[in-house]
């Protein structure tokens, strides 16, 4: 029974992930940005004082070097500004990335798309049910992160 539950869990999470990526891929061209930019602009809107490239990389679970390259493109297009930080090679990782007014307007449009997707996904599900779901999903995520960060933890549990 447990293996069936794990398989179902993995399949559902992968399906959700693919659906979210499809949504990002479908709206990004209409907004004139890459799909990788969509989450970043949305996330930066929630942090008006800005985020460092390192923080943005951690939140989006991608390599910091990709953030640096892509943020430069967003900066050139007038969506973000990069300010502060230390000197040397790590300057870009420690600098704060903030939305410009143009970037804020685009992020508001992205938010409208996100809210429409959320409403469609939440259809027929009550607020209490959603609250329990997200609380449980957060616990599952934390638990799996702990397992993933402990080398050998699974081998010890299987033995």
Biggest sheet strand line-up: 1-3-2
What's the end-to-end separation, in Å?
A: 20 Å
Instruction: Please report the total strand number as a whole number.
Output: 3
Low-confidence spans: pLDDT under 50, at least 5 residues? 86-90
Shape: globular
Structural class: mainly alpha
Indicate the percent of residues in helices: over 70%
Q: Output the number of helix runs.
A: 8
Succession of helices and strands: HHEHHEHEHHH
Q: Report the sheet-strand fraction.
A: 5-15%
Biggest sheet record: 3 strands, antiparallel
Task: Kindly describe this structure.
The structure is a single chain. The protein is globular, with a radius of gyration of 19 Å. The model is unreliable at 86-90 (pLDDT under 50). The protein has 159 residues and is mainly alpha-helical. Helix content is 74%, strand content 6%. It has helices at 2-31, 35-45, 53-60, 64-76, 91-94, 101-122, 127-149, 153-158; strands at residues 51-52, 80-83, 96-99. The protein has a 3-stranded antiparallel sheet.
Produce the secondary structure layout.
Elements (H helix, E strand, L loop, with lengths): L1 H30 L3 H11 L5 E2 H8 L3 H13 L3 E4 L7 H4 L1 E4 L1 H22 L4 H23 L3 H6 L1
Antiparallel strand pairs: 1-3, 2-3
Short description:
This protein has 159 residues and is mainly alpha-helical. It contains 8 helices and 3 strands.
């Amino acid at each position: 029974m447990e293996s069936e539950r794990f398989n179902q869990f993995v399949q559902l999470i992968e399906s959700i992930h693919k659906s979210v990526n499809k949504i990002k891929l479908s709206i990004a061209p209409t907004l004139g940005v890459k799909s990788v930019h969509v989450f970043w602009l949305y996330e930066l809107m929630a942090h008006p004082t800005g985020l460092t490239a390192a923080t943005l990389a951690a939140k989006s679970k991608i390599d910091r070097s990709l953030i640096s390259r892509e943020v430069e493109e967003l900066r050139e297009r007038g969506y973000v500004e990069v300010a502060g930080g230390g000197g040397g090679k790590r300057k870009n990782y420690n600098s704060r990335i903030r939305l410009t007014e143009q970037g804020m307007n685009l992020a508001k449009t992205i938010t409208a798309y996100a809210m429409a997707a959320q409403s469609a996904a939440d259809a027929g599900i009550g607020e209490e049910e959603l609250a329990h779901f997200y609380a449980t999903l957060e616990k599952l995520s934390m638990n799996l992160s702990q397992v993933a960060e402990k080398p050998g933890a699974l081998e010890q549990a299987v033995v």
